[in-house]
Amino acid sequence: MDSLVYTLFAVAGLLVLVSLLPPLAQRLRLPYTVLLAATGVGIGTLLHVAGRSAEAGGFGFAGDFLVAVGELDLSSQAFLYIFLPVLLFEAALSVDVRRLMDDLGPVLLLAVVAVLMCTALAGLAMYGVWGLWHGEATGTALVVCFLLASIIATTDPAAVVGIFRDIGAPRRLSILVEGESLFNDAAAIVLFTLLLGMLTAGGSMDPVAAGGDFLVKFAGGLAVGWGLGKAIGWLVTPMRNQAQSEITLTVALAYLAFIIGEHYLGVSGVVAVVTAALVMAGEGRTRISPESWEGLENVWSQLGFWANSLIFLLASMLIPPTLLNATWGHLIMLAALILGATAARALVIFGLIPGLTALGAADRISGAYKTVMLWGGLRGAVSLALALAVSENRRVPDDIQDMVAVVVTGFVLFTLFVQGTTLRPLMRLFRLDRLTPVELALRNRVLGLSLSDVRQEVERIARDFRMDPEPALEPLLDRGAGLAQEQLDLDSMGALSAEDRVYIGLSTLARREEELYLGYFRDGVISRLTVQSLGAAVGRLQDGVKTRGRKGYEAAARSILRFGPGMRTRLWLHRRLGLERPLANGLSERFAELAVQRFALQQLLHFTSQRLSPLLGRDTATTLHELLAARLAAVEEAMAALRLQYPAYLRELEARYLVRAGLRFEERTLQELFEETLISREILRDLSRELNQRRRNAEQPPRLDLGLSTQELVAKVPLFAGLAPERVKRIERLLKPRLYVPGELVVRKGDRGDAMYFISSGAVAVRLPGLSTPVRLGSGEFFGEMALVLDQPRNADVEAIAYCQLLVLDRRDFRRLYEEDAEVKAHIDATVARRQAPVPAAPAA
Predict the structure, then answer these.
(1) Please, are residues 469 and 459 in contact by the beta-carbon 8 Å criterion?
(2) Residue among 378, 382, 253 nearest 307 (CA)
(3) Which residues, in sequence order, are bridge partners of residue 757?
(4) How many Å apart are CA 8 and CA 657, to the nearest integer?
(5) 672-687 per-position pLDDT tens digit
(6) For the Cyclic nucleotide-binding domain, which residue ranges apply (predicted)?
(7) Is pLDDT at 501 greater than 50 in this prediction?
(8) Which CATH fold would you assign to the domain 710-835?
(9) Residue 496 phi/psi, 5° resolution?
């Protein structure tokens, strides 16, 4: 049989085998990777025992399959360049980036510090045994021991996360384990590469140089992954509804990140892949068309399943022949490795993580969580493949190749067949498979609400089909009564306090708000930039609830409406460089965010009344309603301020939002007509082209005119109204228009007076010492002249309380106008005298 045919036959047969293992693992209640490893060991043993008979044709069809599998040549290069990018990208793509960022401190500690500590402690433990066994320990021996320890420092989360999902373990525990595995794979492989290079170079070791190389490779991988992730995100953004192209770009991203980082730039390709995948996971929902995102997740899930299953199975098949070379010395080294690695992991989990909690960098992790994380550090295909890379390296002595292969294989088998099979009972021992009283109370309320909906649906179906509903309703009523009694028992124990209810309600509202924004984006109503900005805002809400409960939610809600660094940068560009377009774009985006928030908050109010009130109680719903109403009022106030300044623009923007919503509905209608065979594919294609053109036009925001024409602004200032046209034109050349946003400080008390300000439109608040309430100045008035006339520092803070169009006259031009124009000088002097009165009728600045 041709070698290509043999290869295809072997791969196809193995795919059939791995497709049968997940349901078998579920039935046997074993981790999938444990069963996968056992199957691989079984096939490897069968190949070793019956391989020659199969080659002689003694087993027929099955014999050909064994021969084909035996001829599969799995090299370390094949693993690194074919399987590893897929494994890492798929694992990172499925991570909840927001939740990962919440526990980034513990994750990085476990990933980087734990890898270094495991390498150090386990390596030193084996180094001590080496000295006792061989009578001496050289520098090369130390490098070999550290190399061994770095290989097993990487953990495989597949088994433990699978168990977590089966028994309903807390989501946070899964996030910690998944995040740890992502980054410690990267850290361990970087360290392994450095140590293998030292070993093949003669065993010399420079800790300082090694540490520097480690940081450079790790940081370089982060930069490469982030840059490529952003670049592919930029490329994929305009590919709306081109699922094949969008998904293909992400597959290319995984391999490009690895190859460019590892082969061309000499940094960590593993770190680059993980970082690129996290960038795509964080931004993909807003950059990739919503219709394609679900398909992309399914494709990557399938690719990850194939890669993980095949690499684990093929690597496990090498275990039987490897263990034939085992000696007592290898077993002693293995025992030292197990003890050293366990001690290092325990030191990190029970020693360093509490330090992060004490510093406020991480939430508290219970002792039960820590114990499960300690015992759940399983090793898998990555460790076996790294050991294979050592055994294939001809520059490594044969005895070291054998030792690395045997010890790593033994360690992987220990973690899989000892730790992996006892992890589920350990979690049951700590009751991590059970809901807390708070979660149980919430579960009962949700289930009770669901049963009520089910009962109504059953009654409706029975009426429609003229059937008797009693047989179906009786078990529902019995179950509802049991839930009600269980809930009464929990309520009597105070399982769900008022504070707990508010916390649950706010957490639910924050998650619901995020889903609403994503839904608006999927419907084509809001832009990618808007959903990204609002997604980050909702993240702050979730963080606020998590850390400070109701107060944290309120503080985060206030921060959402403030003008952020982006708007301040746009204002700086406008004032320093005269660039109006960035500021106009920023104001357009602010209106879009305010409009969407208003709509979402109105829906959340309805959601609170209809869904959360029966779930959490009327009192809690009232509290939640008040918080949402306060947010809505603040949003309305911010929108009113913007609408007063730019009413025509906002009417145009609102109209375009409605047009985009209508286009989305039209698109769905066309698709339904096609599915009902009322229109042909050719007609659908023609109408879709026209619709896409109209969508592109509607997605372009209208141009916002900031209204900062100096001539028009000067005409609104009464002081200049009676002047001759030639004098007005001369004054216009001296004045510079500026826009100030609500809450922005225009003048600060104590600063040197370098300009005066004329209010063309808007209003400011002047906060004078000795006055309990600020004095307001509106259109046509001016301020800042006293510091220039009297040559003294500013004596008040002046803050914009609306969108203000101001004309700014700097100190030098003020002196020229003040001295040359008697009419203007007289008006300013009269104002200064009035503002210097003992009981000021008007403010000074």
Answers:
(1) yes
(2) 382
(3) 783, 808
(4) 53
(5) 888 888 888 888 888 8
(6) 719-835
(7) yes
(8) Jelly Rolls (2.60.120)
(9) -125, 95
Distances (CA, A) of 192 to 85, 345, 581: 17, 18, 51
User: What Cα–Cα distance (Å) separates residue 737 from each residue in 91, 569, 734, 807?
Assistant: 53, 17, 10, 5
Mean pLDDT within 260-280: 89
Which of the 8 DSSP states describes residue 264?
I
| pLDDT for the residue 2 | 65
Amino acid, single-letter form, for residue 150: S
The residue among 361, 428, 521 whose CA lies nearest residue 168 is: 428
Q: Which of 275, 333, 320 is nearest to 152 (CA)?
A: 333
Binning the chain into helix, strand and coil, the percentages to the nearest 5 are 75, 5, 20
For residues 623 and 618, give the distance between their C-alpha atoms in angstroms, rounded to a whole number: 9
Tokens representing 799? 């803050």
Domain regions of the chain by residue span: 3-70, 76-429, 437-492, 498-645, 710-835
Residue 780 zone, left/alpha/beta (φ > 0; ψ -120 to 50; rest)? left
pTM above 0.85, yes or no: no
| Dihedral angle of Cα 115, 117, 120, 124, to the nearest 10 degrees | -120
Return the number of other C-beta atoms located less than 10 Å from residue 751's C-beta: 12
Alpha-carbon distance 765 to 807, whole Å?
17
Q: What phi, psi does 743 have (nearest 5°)?
A: 85, -5
* pLDDT at 122 > cutoff 70: yes
What is the dihedral sign for C-alpha 366, 372, 375, 381? negative
pLDDT for the residue 137: 61
Contact call for residues 445 and 487 (beta carbons, < 8 A): yes
CA-based angle 682:684:687, to the nearest 5?
110
Measured from the Cβ of residue 466, the count of other Cβ atoms closer than 10 Å reads 6
How distant, in Å, are the alpha carbons of 195, 219, 230, 246 from that of 216?
15, 5, 21, 32
Per-residue pLDDT of 207-252, as tens digits, reads 677 677 778 888 899 899 999 999 998 888 777 667 788 889 999 9
Topology (CATH) of 76-429:
Na+/H+ antiporter like fold (1.20.1530)
DSSP 228-264: HHHHHHHHHTT-TT-HHHHHHHHHHHHHHHHHIIIII
CA distance 561 to 594: 8
Q: Which two tokens stand for residue 32?
A: 């999938």
